Amino acid sequence: MEIAGSPESHPSEMTLITYRQPIYFDDLDALQMLHNARYAVYVERATTAFYESLGKVWEQDVADNPDQFHVVREIHVEFLAPFKRTGELRVGLWLEQLGATSCTYGFRCTSGVADVVHAHGRRTIVRLDPVSLRPAPWTDWFRTAHVRLAHSDRGESGLA
Prior knowledge:
The protein is of the alpha+beta class. It contains two helices and six strands; from the N terminus they run E-E-H-E-E-E-E-H. A six-stranded antiparallel β-sheet has the order 1-2-4-5-6-3. Residues 4-12 and 151-160 have low confidence and may be disordered.
């Protein structure tokens, strides 16, 4: 995993991390292409790697890491080119928007072969209160960890 602070391929997208994911034969579908459902798994792994790079791990007691109590509200993936082999997939991840209770990451899945973009999209998570299961604000730690990553191609902060 690489932590970066500059645009990867598109100037409007500030790369948060580049996560390198090996692709094995059993990741491929019957047409010998990376199975579509695997992209969401790899984006989640990239997000987990980002949290771990900041010293956060999944805790048994949610009080030890309250931001881990969140759900995926939306994932949107646009498939652009098939990944048709074993090898390495790179997942570029950046922050698109940080709200009071939600966080939207953008992502791009590429390969080393001429930097082909295989898929891109966004993933939105919402923090929940563990008792009421209603949306709850992110902790100050979470906001501070993400605020430097906010960007927009319109020159806005990306924070809500």
